[in-house]
Design goal:
The complex is a heterodimer of chains A (667) and B (148).
Chain A (H helix, E strand, L loop, with lengths): L3 E6 L11 H8 L5 E7 L5 H14 L3 E6 L2 H14 L7 E5 L1 H5 L6 H19 L7 E4 L3 E5 L3 H12 L3 E5 L14 E2 L4 E2 H14 L3 E4 L2 E9 L2 E8 L14 H5 L5 E2 L8 E2 L2 E2 L11 E2 L5 H5 L4 H5 L12 E7 L1 E4 L3 E3 L16 E3 H8 L20 E8 L15 H15 L4 E6 L9 H10 L4 E4 L2 E7 L2 E8 L5 E7 L1 E6 L1 E3 L3 H8 L26 E3 L9 H19 L3 E4 L4 E3 L15 H5 L5 E7 L5 E8 L9 H5 L5 E3 L4 H11 L4
Parallel strand pairs in A: 1-2, 1-3, 3-4, 6-7, 6-18, 7-10, 18-29, 20-27, 21-22, 21-27, 22-23
Antiparallel strand pairs in A: 5-30, 8-9, 11-12, 12-17, 13-14, 15-16, 19-28, 24-25, 25-26, 31-34, 32-33
Chain B lengths: L7 E6 L3 H10 L8 E6 L8 H8 L4 E6 L10 H19 L6 E5 L5 H18 L3 H15 L1
Helix pairs in contact in B: 1-4
The chains are: A alpha/beta (667), B alpha/beta (148).
Chain lengths: 667, 148
């Protein structure tokens, strides 16, 4: 006979403000099988948990229902308490009378009655619960880091330095990400490449890190501790072992007019190319879309000049499978590009550029070798206008959020410009100056006070060309919204930071959640900022939200410590809520008829064929068998099974039908 | 005269809609108290015989809700639920079950307000339709025939 204990929590006033907790305890004590029903102010507190434990021992309870908050909140807490009192943790269920009742309804009898019904439902469920034992699974102590920007680099190095193997996948031919494109970094103005490239080299040389560049994740199977990942290594048309990185091929390639991705289209590259001189690995790839050989079937100049005969035109994409225990997503961000700002003439006027293009112009390794020259005619601009919030914080453009980094990099651009063009003037249109961060506000003040950047609070309505000048029309809201017109030589738009183009597709491949802007979603906005809702997959850097370098690096180290924490266990315990095929006495053995429809719908290939044999080895029946270490407990097979032979532990037919009965109060 | 208060059962998945309904609570968005939730690991687990069972036991309306397409925690459970629903719906309609009493929807873990909206719309709709005594009469008559 069941002996159930019901424990009703007031949650301070969170529940008791609208639900009569005393009445809930009193009414539920009459449910058959309930031997104790009490209410208490804070059930999750130490005295609350102790009370539950004492009742379990005193009343020899066979099941516990805690009527309190969502099981997503405190189920582990109460299950642990039950376990400590000697009751199997899976004989404890939570009745969600806070999120699903007291917080969403007004104070009246209906709300209390609903709470009673919720408790009744869970009492009937828990009566039918079976003790379960957690499943133990081994942990593969290798991490996969997706993305080779500064966040991915930091995560990979941290994990590798803790002694674990790391595989890094980068879709571009070189690691480095956006940080390698930057000129100097705020708020210290140290050279971006000077601080990043040693880290890039460290990744390439680290004995614990395997680096796959020009590669993308194809698919992911498995679960925390035991993922199987397919990686597509795109054909580089190159034997990397033979290539010495001499670069002769890149200077001889006759296709010269491909806009360089690294220089944001401000310079050209060849069809066989290394994205930038400090690239890691410093070996070229052939861009098949532009290579004459791949288009017309002849050329092969690179193959002829290559001193080590490393060119491989017949190379094909290769798919490799790796086993990892955890993933770090560090796929970064992108910025809004042309066509998004017709009113600013971006994409129409050559001298209206974006922030990343200005970084390349200001960079010593850039197309102008660090001299500020405008793209149209190479002249040094004497008047330059910067637009902060180009797209950001603009619901009309569909981007309500603040891109966060623009205020700072615009101030930096103004400073860099003034350091190089002493007689020039820099105007900055802004909405607010958001400079919260260590030494950040000092930095923007420096732009204004020391370098004379002219900040105008207001937005720009349009930009057009007149007599070779770009006319910037805006409003100065601190001067009664007076119209301001500036004849500029060049305009730099701090365009909104957005999710990288492949983010949504990748999220769906990996089953991680993402928000409406396609940024990956963290498990909890405050307390679990580096975890995703999918166990074993962590977040680093701007793929979660636009971030600056220090924040990205901090989050990357946070993700690394989560991975290392996971890897500090030799085995993990998993939720035992898995599917099982019933077994009965011979000659039936199981109600399973062996149709194997379940096998075709299982997303995890967890269902195998099991042969039931007689003593002399004759096969009597073939039935389905669910491999408990592979099953994830979705239950798709359960609902599909025609003979109702599969059940899922924790959500059995008995349990859910009893819940429906109890909920409708007709037991 | 008292207004008719329908009984509505919601079968929801643990990862999206249950969490979404939690968010409705966390955000203190009020909705009709007529709906009571039963948690499943995934909409793919929901055996549609539960719909008939619930109607027979006194439910006037039903909500089934899970993750948006492509967002399923288990890859494809919501697609299986959707396909099963397409078939089951036609069959129910043929059998004379009022399919307007069943709401099939997607609510993500971030859509607290949407959950409240779906509950309220469903409850309003069921209020207009009235109690579902017809189904229970139909089932009970059949039971009598079987017993006789």
């Amino acid at each position: 006979m069941a002996r159930i204990g019901v424990f009703v929590c007031h949650c301070g006033e969170n529940i008791s403000a609208t639900v009569d907790c005393g009445k809930v305890a009193q009414v539920t004590s009459d449910i058959p099988g309930v031997v104790v029903s009490v209410d208490y102010k804070y059930m999750c507190s130490d005295p609350g948990q102790t009370m539950i434990k004492e009742y379990i021992e005193k009343e020899k309870l066979t099941g516990v229902v805690v009527a309190a908050c969502s099981p997503r909140m405190h189920e582990p807490t109460f299950r642990r308490a039950c376990g400590e009192a000697g009751l199997n943790p899976f004989l404890c269920e939570m009745a969600n009378v806070r999120e699903h009742c007291s917080w969403v309804h007004d104070k009246n009898d209906v709300t209390t009655d609903k709470a009673i019904d919720i408790v009744r439902t869970l009492v009937e469920k828990v009566k039918r619960n079976e003790p379960l034992m957690p499943i133990k699974v081994p942990v593969t102590k290798t991490a996969l880091v997706i993305g080779g920007g500064v966040a991915g680099i930091q995560s990979a190095l941290d994990i590798a330095n803790c002694g674990h193997k790391v595989i890094m996948v980068e879709k571009e031919p070189s690691i480095g990400g956006h940080m390698s494109q930057l000129s100097e970094t705020f708020p210290t103005l140290d050279c971006s490449q000077c601080i990043l490239t040693p880290r890039m080299v460290e990744v390439a040389q680290h004995p614990n890190i395997t680096l796959y560049t020009y590669a993308e994740v194809e698919s992911l199977d498995g679960f925390i501790g035991n993922f199987k990942v397919k990686i597509r290594k795109k054909a580089k048309s190159l034997d990397e072992k033979l290539c010495t990185g001499c670069g002769l091929c890149c200077t001889k390639c006759p296709v010269k007019n491909i806009p360089s991705e690294f220089d944001q289209g401000l310079s050209n590259r060849r069809a066989i190319y290394v994205p930038f001189p400090q690239a890691v690995p410093n070996k070229p790839v052939i861009d098949k879309e532009h290579c004459t050989y791949y288009i017309k079937g002849k050329c092969k100049v690179c193959e002829i000049v290559c001193p080590t005969k490393a060119i491989r035109f017949d190379q094909e994409d290769e798919i490799i499978e790796v086993e990892v225990g955890a993933l770090v997503l560090a796929t970064g961000f992108d910025i809004k590009r042309a066509n998004f700002f017709p009113e600013y003439g971006y994409g129409k006027y050559k001298d209206v550029i974006d922030g990343l293009q200005f970084e390349r112009i200001a960079s010593a390794s850039g197309p102008t070798l660090g001299e500020i020259r405008r793209p149209s005619d190479g002249q040094i601009p004497k008047k330059i206008v910067f637009l902060a919030c180009a797209g950001s914080r603009d619901p009309a453009k569909g981007i309500e959020y603040c891109s966060k980094i623009c205020c700072m990099y615009t101030a930096k651009h103004a400073i860099l410009y003034k350091h190089k063009v002493h007689d020039g003037t820099a105007y900055i249109f802004y909405m607010d100056i958001r400079a919260a961060g260590k030494n950040y506000d000092e930095f923007t003040r420096r732009a204004i006070e020391e370098d004379g950047a002219k900040y105008i609070r207001g937005r720009v309505s349009r930009i057009y060309e007149r007599d070779g000048k770009l006319i910037v029309v805006g409003a100065d809201t601190l001067m009664n919204a007076k119209t301001v017109e500036i004849e500029a030589d060049m305009v730099v738009l701090a365009t909104a930071g957005v999710a990288s183009p492949g983010a949504e597709e990748l999220a769906q491949k990996l089953h991680v959640s993402y928000d409406q802007h396609k940024f990956f979603a963290e498990a909890h906005p405050k307390l679990r900022p580096v975890e995703t809702n999918t166990a074993g997959i962590f977040l680093a850097g701007a793929c979660q939200n636009v971030k600056d370098i220090p924040e990205s690096v901090a989050q990357a180290s946070g993700a690394a410590v989560k991975v290392c924490g996971l890897f500090s266990n030799d085995e993990l315990t998993r939720d035992p809520s898995v599917a099982v095929v019933n077994r009965t006495a011979p000659p039936l053995f199981s109600t399973c008829v062996g149709c194997f429809l379940c096998q075709s719908v299982c997303p995890y290939q967890a269902i195998e064929k099991e042969e039931i044999k007689s003593r002399d080895g004759k096969i009597l029946k073939t039935i389905a068998f669910v491999n408990p270490s592979v099953c994830q407990g979705c239950g798709t097979c359960v609902a599909l099974c025609r003979s109702k032979s599969i059940d899922i532990l924790g959500y059995t037919h008995k349990q859910v039908y009893a819940e429906v009965d109890a909920l409708l109060n007709t037991l | 005269m008292n207004e008719f208060e329908p009984k509505v059962v919601a079968f929801v998945c643990n990862w999206c809609t249950y969490a979404g309904a939690d968010l409705t609570g966390t955000s203190r968005i009020k909705y009709a108290p007529n709906v009571k939730i039963i948690r499943f690991p995934c909409t793919g687990r929901i055996d549609f015989m539960l719909i008939l069972k619930a109607f027979a036991k006194g439910a006037d309306g039903i909500i089934i809700s899970g993750c948006h397409p492509n967002d399923c925690h288990y890859t494809s459970g919501n697609f299986h639920a959707k396909r099963r629903w397409m078939v089951f719906r036609t069959m129910l309609d043929f059998l004379g079950v009022d399919v307007n009493r069943i709401t099939f929807s997607w609510v993500s873990a971030a859509e607290g307000a949407r959950w409240a909206e779906i509950v309220n719309t469903t409850v309003d709709g069921i209020k207009k339709l009235g109690p579902y005594d017809n189904y229970r009469k139909m089932v009970n008559e059949e039971t009598e025939v079987n017993n006789g």
